[in-house]
């Protein structure tokens, strides 16, 4: 969602960081470009004015103009102001109230209230071991109550039995009584919406609030709303009094202005963001991490968290043990490809890596997409178990059979086998702890033994020895990964040559070597 804004801001900061010193005129010109970029991203005018005023106040000063790297200092100032605008600190759903805690979901029709209600209920049930009851108060939209019941069965959460003819207020009172008598920890109210804000809707929300006495009132808003997000948030906050915001469709192609505008206008935190259609596609909203992604600094924390949630620890340990012995067969490669798909595929992984936003043109030119992973897995799965464990037996006739089974040509099978041989040789060198760059890297990752955890300086020195370099003009902000962590692969200038070592990926997975799409 923040792609367009990220591209524009990255271009502005590139120009700043190339200069050895900045004048006030340079800073003013850069802030004018930032202002234009925010307005184009559908950020509300009042929010843009406040944003640029704060940034200007901090940037125009002797300490910045005369600093050692003034361009990078201005980037940091904009990053700090952006984080403050988004809310400074993440705020989860507040459950600190006597049970059953009532959570009321409000918003316009089509924003995703019902699905988001089920997502939150699933999250609270699985992560916090809460007993949740969901109740649909939408008696106007056809089959709205049945929809929530179906979602409840899908995620394993109880829903209030449907009683035809009851009003929303009566349903809310009944849900509260059932929650209290049957020992539920949380009762969630999925209210009705309208295609636009009107008086009957607001009156109904106020009546439900008075009857249900919710501890949390979450405004569910579509991230694609654009400029109208400000009016939506302001009206609901004034008439109902929201305690937090949930943004849906953040994985869409919206311009990102809704997130900045709604938080600044209402003063209420964005608590969760919906990042997909699946019932587990819901993330905490962390202002600092979102600000880093907008500024092209990636979100390594989210990537590692996602990896930790999706990767099978036993399988990861098993593959790591084989690598230590210098063994790495095609079954291991297929497992790594599957793990990468679970994390979000190439697009999901790349979107969270620092500096990769600057390399989109090179990635597009290299024809890199998520279908590469599926194609490579299809080739491996077309082999027999014996062929996966011993690729040396693959002769011409077997390769033809495998290519036909995977729907590819023999050339692509050969590319995969060549890729695997290179990875297997690297694993063997790392596992054997040989001298040279591979041996040193193996010791760093604990495969050769004896060497303590490397410092950032050692990693940078190793990267230089291997011929890597940082993407050009990549801003260096606090908390960013150490310089040299993402160097390009020799022979492919500008493209990252090494994935960060995530849990379960064993350091051997490199999506950029899997071939190009046809």
What do you see in this structure?
The chain has helices spanning about 5-15, 25-40, 45-60, 60-65, 70-85, 115-125, 145-155, 170-180, 200-210, 230-240, 255-265, 285-295, 300-310, 315-325, 330-345, 345-350, 360-365, 370-380, 385-390, 395-405, 410-430, 435-445, 455-465; strands at about 100-105, 130-135, 160, 185-190, 215-220, 245-250, 270-275, 280-285. It contains 23 helices and eight strands. Helices cover about 50% and strands about 5% of the residues. It has an eight-stranded mixed beta sheet, with helices on both faces. It is flat. Helix 10 links the parallel strand 5 and strand 6 (about 245-250). Helix 2 (about 25-40) runs antiparallel to helix 3 (about 45-60) and helix 3 (about 45-60) packs antiparallel against helix 5. By secondary structure, it is an alpha/beta fold. It folds into three domains: about 5-85, Up-down Bundle (Four Helix Bundle (Hemerythrin (Met), subunit A)), CATH 1.20.120.140; about 100-295, Rossmann fold (3-Layer(aba) Sandwich); about 315-515, 434 Repressor (Amino-terminal Domain) (Orthogonal Bundle), CATH 1.10.260.
Overall helicity: 40-55%
Q: What is the tally of beta strands?
A: 8
Distance between the termini: 28 Å
What is the CATH class of the largest domain?
Answer: Mainly Alpha
Provide the CATH superfamily of the largest domain: Signal recognition particle, SRP54 subunit, M-domain
Mean of the pLDDT scores?
A: 75
Oligomeric state as shown: single chain
Return Rg in Å: 26 Å
Principal-axis shape equals flat
Strand order of the largest sheet: 3-2-4-1-5-6-7-8
């Amino acid at each position: 969602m923040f792609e367009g804004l990220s591209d524009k801001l990255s271009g502005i900061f590139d120009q700043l960081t190339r200069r050895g010193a900045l004048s006030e005129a340079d800073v003013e010109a850069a802030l004018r470009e930032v202002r234009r970029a925010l307005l184009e991203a559908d950020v509300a005018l009042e929010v843009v004015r406040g944003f640029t005023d704060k940034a200007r106040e901090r940037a125009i000063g002797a300490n910045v103009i005369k600093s050692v790297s003034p361009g990078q200092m201005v980037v940091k100032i904009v990053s700090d102001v952006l984080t403050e605008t988004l809310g400074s600190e993440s705020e989860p759903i507040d459950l600190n109230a006597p049970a059953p805690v009532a959570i009321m979901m409000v918003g316009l029709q089509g924003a995703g209230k019902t699905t988001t209600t089920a997502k939150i209920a699933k999250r609270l049930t699985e992560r916090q071991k809460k007993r949740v009851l969901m109740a649909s108060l939408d008696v106007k939209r056809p089959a709205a109550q049945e929809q929530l019941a179906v979602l409840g069965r899908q995620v394993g959460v109880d829903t209030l039995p449907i009683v035809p003819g009851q009003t929303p207020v009566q349903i809310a009172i009944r849900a509260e009584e059932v929650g209290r008598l049957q020992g539920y920890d949380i009762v969630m109210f999925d209210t009705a919406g309208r295609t636009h804000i009107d008086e009957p809707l607001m009156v109904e929300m106020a009546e439900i609030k008075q009857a249900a006495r919710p501890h949390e009132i979450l405004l569910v808003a579509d991230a694609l709303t654009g400029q109208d997000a400000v009016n939506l948030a302001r009206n609901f906050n004034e008439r109902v009094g929201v305690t937090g915001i949930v943004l849906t469709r953040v994985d869409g192609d919206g311009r990102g202005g809704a997130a900045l505008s709604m938080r600044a206008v209402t003063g209420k935190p964005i608590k969760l963001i919906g990042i997909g259609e699946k019932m587990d596609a819901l993330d905490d909203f962390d202002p600092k991490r979102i600000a880093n992604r907008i500024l092209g600094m990636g979100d390594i924390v989210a990537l590692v968290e996602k990896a930790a949630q999706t990767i099978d620890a036993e399988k990861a340990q098993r593959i790591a043990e084989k690598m230590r012995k210098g063994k790495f067969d095609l079954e291991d490669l297929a497992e790594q490809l599957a793990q990468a798909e679970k994390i979000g595929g190439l697009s999901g992984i790349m979107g969270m890596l620092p500096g990769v936003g600057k390399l989109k043109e090179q990635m597009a030119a290299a024809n890199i997409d998520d279908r590469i992973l599926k194609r490579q897995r299809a080739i491996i799965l077309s082999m027999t178990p014996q062929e996966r464990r011993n690729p040396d037996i693959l002769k011409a006739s077997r390769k033809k059979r495998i290519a036909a089974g995977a729907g590819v040509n023999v050339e692509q099978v050969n590319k995969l086998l060549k890729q695997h041989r290179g990875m297997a040789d690297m694993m063997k060198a790392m596992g054997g702890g040989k001298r040279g760059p591979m041996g040193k890297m193996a010791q760093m990752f604990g495969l050769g033994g004896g060497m303590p955890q490397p410092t950032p300086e050692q990693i940078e020195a190793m990267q230089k020895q291997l011929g890597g370099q940082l993407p050009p003009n990549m801003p260096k902000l606090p908390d960013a990964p150490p310089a040299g962590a993402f160097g390009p692969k020799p022979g492919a200038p500008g493209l990252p040559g090494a994935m960060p070592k995530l849990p379960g990926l064993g350091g051997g997975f490199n999506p950029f070597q899997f071939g190009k799409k046809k």
